[in-house]
Amino acid sequence: MVHTYELTTLDKAQRGRLLRRAEVAIDDLLDYIRPVVHDVRDRGDAALIDYMERFDHVHLTADQFRVSHEEIARAHDLLDKDVYQAIKHAIKNVRTFHERQMPHEQWFTEVAPGVMAGEKITPISSVGLYVPRGKGSFPSVVYMLATPASIAGVPRIVICTPPAPNGEVDPATLVAADLCGVHEVYRVAGAQAIAALAYGTETIARVHKVTGPGSPYVSAAKRLLYGTLDVGLPAGPSEAAILADESADPELVVRDLMVEAEHGPDSSSILVTNSRALLDAVKDLLPARIASLPEPRQTFCRTGFEGEKGTGGLILAPNLSEAIAFVNEYAPEHLLVHMREPFAVLPELRNAGEILLGSRTSGPLANYSLGINAILPTGGFAHTFSCTSVFDFLKRTSLGYVTAEGYGPLSDSTRILADFEGFPSHARAVTDRPEARF
Ligand SMILES: NC(=O)c1ccc[n+]([C@@H]2O[C@H](COP(=O)([O-])OP(=O)(O)OC[C@H]3O[C@@H](n4cnc5c(N)ncnc54)[C@H](O)[C@@H]3O)[C@@H](O)[C@H]2O)c1
Ligand SMILES: N[C@H](CO)Cc1c[nH]c[nH+]1
Ligand SMILES: [Zn+2]
Predict the structure, then answer these.
(1) Which residue from 366, 347, 331 is spatially nearest to 260, judged by alpha carbons?
(2) Per-residue confidence at 24, pLDDT binned at 50, 70, 90?
(3) Which of 277, 310, 332, 421 has the greatest CB tally within 10 Å of its CB?
(4) Are residue 163 and residue 39 in the same domain, yes or no?
(5) Residues 184, 239, 333, 354: which is the catalytic one?
(6) What is the number of domains present in the chain?
(7) Which ligand sits nearest to residue 236's alpha carbon?
(8) How far apart, in whole angstroms, are the C-alpha atoms of residue 372 and residue 94?
(9) What is the ipTM metric for this complex?
């Protein structure tokens, strides 16, 4: 039976489970992943070799970690031509969107006569992009991460991705990396890859930031390494919420519900509606649609929508404003609005990694090729985190410049505040300052 809930009778435990969803699994893995992270820190490549054998069932020597230019060239020959063209089409839209997102390199504003305040932007010097492989081939994850990194001007872009048991890396991932100008690709996976990027090993130089989606093992490693490097936005198991009113087409709602649910058993996909008729229609259609999926996607969807620990389901709200309030609290990665007037509710939608408006704007369009970024905060972190963008790969530095005209009034109030806070050196630095020469 598909999980169904009524918002008015949802108990505290049910609500908590829906709101925390896959984050619970990440919490539970921290103690298990900690020794892996420490071991990579302490033993470098030797630990990577061991964990790649244990978790990925592949025997590698350290000199095989880095994917060679020849292997990347071979991937171009191996990749289906239609897939190659589709990747290029998607990259074009993703590039256009992210180029327009780029801020000015430097700006100043005169906040008072002779008092100039501004900012300068600089790319981060090195980033590690994690591209998952366990439950799918993800060339789209490559271009969603590497395109904004490259537009931002990051001089060293590194990818870590799991190899197959024969040691080969997914050709589509390699082609996408090549098309996006990625500098280094390593066949190193999971928590051990995140630790290698954080601490560096004999063969993989450390980076300043790691970003990209991953399984709860990857998310747990990132959480443990917070403080060692910038771990970016929390992008765990995929999830979506559909906000729908009585005008929604149940068939289209069912199709969109299954999109993120088919990523894995820990993915969450929910319908939130004020229409009992819609909920009942979706509930009737969903099991047959799930049954028509091939394995393992069928089991992933069944687990999410019907399983004991599944966090997917259908939620009936007493009215539209309660439905919107719940969606805002849920803060989904992907929010789809199947409503007659989607733009009318847009001002009220506050927390989501992305908002897709109208029943034509199906999730996969944005996952792959609409242009907006599909690597988004999960687990409720859309309350404070933003979608991946060029800003993930840039930092802002404040700039200040004071002319002789601006100095007088500014130094007077500064001295008063420094005295008040009890900082005599601060006060002295701006008292009777000899005429500055520049
Ligand atoms: N939020 C987003 O933007 C986004 C985008 C795409 C995918 N995703 C999510 O990313 C996740 C990808 O997960 P995945 O499994 O496909 O790939 P993954 O690469 O993140 O995880 C697989 C790796 O985990 C490690 N591993 C496997 N079993 C282990 C064990 N028992 N102990 C320790 N380590 C182990 C292995 O190294 C393996 O290569 C999915 O949950 C998907 O929903 C999210
Ligand atoms: N749904 C993922 C982000 O949550 C993106 C993706 C890539 N491929 C398929 N889906
Ligand atoms: Zn998806």
Answers:
(1) 366
(2) confident
(3) 332
(4) yes
(5) 333
(6) 3
(7) 1
(8) 6
(9) 0.97
